[in-house]
């Protein structure tokens, strides 16, 4: 299904998604109040959003620094010839890579990495550098955290 074929979100769906984005642990009763529905209606709407794949998971947002990872980096990875799938597997196996996108352009992967120290960063990058070129940028701050895209259709 293309983006143009995707069913649109009505105001109630948007209210449910906004409430969940603010607190994924919101009670069904509170969610119903936020959306102006009864609890059974809110539960049904939420079930349909899950079935349609709009809501994929309910999760938590951890602060890496608070659990011992004060440094974050963006790593651009360009596998050496014939190493694409091996590099992808290596990235998947290193738990400090907390996000990774396969992209077009000069690099094949752009990943987010959390580490405890610069020495740990070097050790992780050494595992990748055997099979790929890397370019690393340390993250100073994140002025835009992961957020919902605009939910209402613009015409």
Give an overview of the whole structure.
The protein is α+β, with helices and mostly antiparallel strands and 155 residues long. The protein is built from five helices and four strands, in the order H-H-H-E-H-E-E-H-E. It has a four-stranded antiparallel β-sheet, with helices on one face. Helix 2 crosses helix 3 (39-51). The longest helix is centred in the first third of the chain and has 13 residues, at 39-51. It is elongated. The relative contact order is 0.15.
Brief rundown of the structure:
With about 160 residues, this protein is an alpha+beta fold. The chain has helices spanning about 10-20, 30-35, 40-50, 85-95, 120-130; strands spanning about 70-80, 95-100, 110-115, 130-140. Strand 2 and strand 3 (about 110-115) form a beta hairpin.
Write down the overall mean pLDDT: 92
Poorly predicted tracts of residues: none
Summarize the amount of helix as a percent range: 25-40%
Taking all Cα atoms into account, the compactness measure Rg is: 20 Å
Percentage of residues in strands: 15-25%
Sheet with the most strands: spatial strand order = 2-3-1-4
* Termini gap: 20 Å
Per-chain topology:
Blueprint: H1 11-22, H2 28-35, H3 39-51, E1 71-79, H4 84-93, E2 97-102, E3 109-115, H5 118-129, E4 132-138
Antiparallel strand pairs: 1-3, 1-4, 2-3
Helix pairs in contact: 1-2, 2-3
């Amino acid at each position: 299904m293309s983006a143009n074929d995707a069913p649109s979100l009505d105001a109630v769906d948007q209210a449910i998604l906004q409430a969940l984005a603010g607190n994924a642990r919101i009670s069904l009763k509170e969610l119903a109040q936020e959306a102006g529905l009864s609890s059974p209606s809110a539960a049904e709407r939420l079930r349909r959003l899950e079935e349609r794949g709009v809501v994929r998971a309910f999760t938590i947002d951890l602060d890496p620094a608070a659990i011992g990872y004060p440094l974050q980096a963006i790593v651009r990875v360009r596998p050496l010839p014939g190493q694409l799938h091996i590099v992808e597997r290596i990235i998947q196996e290193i738990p400090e890579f907390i996000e990774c996108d396969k992209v077009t352009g000069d690099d094949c992967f752009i990943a987010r990495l959390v580490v405890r120290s610069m020495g740990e960063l070097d050790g992780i990058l050494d595992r990748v550098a055997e099979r790929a070129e890397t370019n690393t940028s340390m993250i100073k701050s994140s002025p835009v955290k992961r957020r919902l895209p605009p939910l209402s259709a613009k015409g």
